[in-house]
Design brief:
The chain is of the alpha/beta class and 438 residues long. The chain is 32% helix and 24% strand.
Length: 438
């Protein structure tokens, strides 16, 4: 490229694991990067449940996006809401300000992630919040802690059961980790802090229509996780469908579970990127991409992470952070080679580094190829891996120290209930905690 030429413009939508990996991989490429996200922070979603259960503060798992790219001159960050893509004009639509309402691109990387899916039951959402954002996590934390506070002041003992029954819908990694964390919080911390009500009388109920917890893991690891949950006092109910959720509880296969706190830890659905692009999608709505992660007819448009659908060895790639990160790096490499007029790399190939889930204190399960492990050693490995992938070194240190303190003292982190009458408490608390801890 000559000095007079304009550097190609790469627009990346989404600052999750995939978008971050792509932007970083283009650091030394002769391109201009615009990274667009609806928030101003990168969120480490695998630890959201720890914010929801008071183990960590929101700012300990989130990093301001601008801080991450302050030493990368070819990258600019914009906070905005994307509503569509005009592929014929190579234009991104819908960012929040007039200046960025229509952003033209030479290359586009969509890494827009997923949102909650209530399986055609949107009426569940007001009564069963999910866990995808910092505000979600703080809202759930408010609900959990408020339940104990209300029980402490409730004069009618008959209402204590409803207040102190926590129902989690979905026994995948999020549900299992959340159930184990709530049970551990009750056992190790809250049990000694109340006088009129016994927190140990609380019930944690984990339900799923699948026949085992962690259904994507090897059966022996599912059995081990199930046994661990049971030992923590979690009531695991499998093989039942959720028929109704309201402000008094949930109905599972005709049986009501009275509860004031229901948490949705089940399915997700991709962003509407498929509709934006007008291209084929799979049954879940994920964009069907070519082996180089582009869409048919538009080699300049890449779709990565949870938003895309691609098979490898006859099986669809899983919606996990490692897939998004590897695809972000690959898409950046393709773009860099095109800009440099070099041959394209071969088709994308995912290297599976394994999956893991933690179940309470001192216990985790790990599956990586033929390696299947559960127990304390897996718990240590889980902690090391999660620390490694936090976006900033200061967060790694903060989280490590917080975990160490909690391990020794059984005292979790931010057990604050911050609620406002206008309902904005969750979002406000997320902003406050981020400003304090970032």
């Amino acid at each position: 490229m000559t000095a007079g030429e304009r550097a190609p413009h790469v627009v990346i939508v989404g600052a999750g694991f995939g978008g971050l990996a792509a932007a970083r991989a283009l650091k030394h490429a002769p391109v201009r990067i615009s990274l667009v996200d609806r928030t101003n922070h990168h969120l480490f979603q695998p630890l959201l449940y720890q914010v929801a259960t008071s183990m960590l503060a929101p700012g300990q798992i989130a990093s301001p996006i601008r801080a991450l790219f302050r030493r990368q001159p070819n990258a600019a960050v914009y906070m905005g809401e994307v509503t569509g893509v005009d592929t014929s004009a190579r234009r991104l639509l819908g960012a929040t300000t007039d200046r960025t309402a229509q952003v033209e691109y030479d290359y586009l990387i969509l890494a827009t992630g997923v949102r909650h899916s209530y399986f055609n039951h949107p009426e569940f959402e007001p009564y069963a919040p999910g866990l995808k954002t910092l505000a979600d996590a703080v809202s759930v934390r408010n609900r959990l802690l408020s339940a104990f506070e209300l029980a402490e002041t409730e004069e009618d003992p008959a209402r204590h059961t409803d207040l102190l029954t926590f129902v989690l819908v979905g026994a995948g990694p999020t549900g299992v980790e959340m159930a184990g964390a709530i049970a551990t919080l009750i056992r190790n911390t809250l049990s000694s802090e109340f006088r009129r009500v016994d927190p140990r009388s609380a019930r944690v109920v984990l339900v799923d229509r699948a026949t085992r917890v962690l259904p994507t893991f090897a059966e022996e690891l599912s059995v081990a996780a199930h046994a661990r949950l049971t030992s923590l006092g979690v009531d695991v109910r499998l093989g039942g469908s959720v028929e109704r959720i309201d402000d008094t509880g949930a109905i599972i296969d005709g049986r009501r579970i009275p509860s004031r706190t229901v948490i949705w830890t089940a399915g997700v659905e991709p962003s509407p990127a498929g509709r934006w692009l007008g291209v084929p999608t799979d049954r879940a709505g994920r964009v069907r991409v070519l082996p180089d992660l582009t869409i048919p007819g538009h080699p300049e448009v890449f779709v990565i992470g949870d938003t895309m659908s691609l098979e490898q060895d006859g099986r669809p790639l899983p919606g996990v952070a490692q897939v998004a990160m590897q695809q972000g790096t690959y898409a950046a490499r393709v773009i860099a080679r095109r800009v440099a007029a070099q041959p394209a790399p071969g088709p994308f190939r995912y290297f599976d580094k394994g999956t893991m889930a933690v179940v309470g204190r001192n216990f985790a399960v790990i599956e990586s190829g033929r390696v299947k492990m559960s127990g304390l050693l897996a718990f240590v490995a889980w902690g090391a891996v999660h620390l490694q992938f936090l976006a900033q070194s200061n967060l790694r240190l903060m989280v490590f120290l917080q975990w160490a303190w909690q391990y020794v003292t059984n005292q979790p982190g931010s057990r604050l209930i911050v609620a406002h009458r206008d309902g904005s408490g969750a979002a406000a608390q997320a902003r406050v905690d981020e400003s304090v801890h970032a």
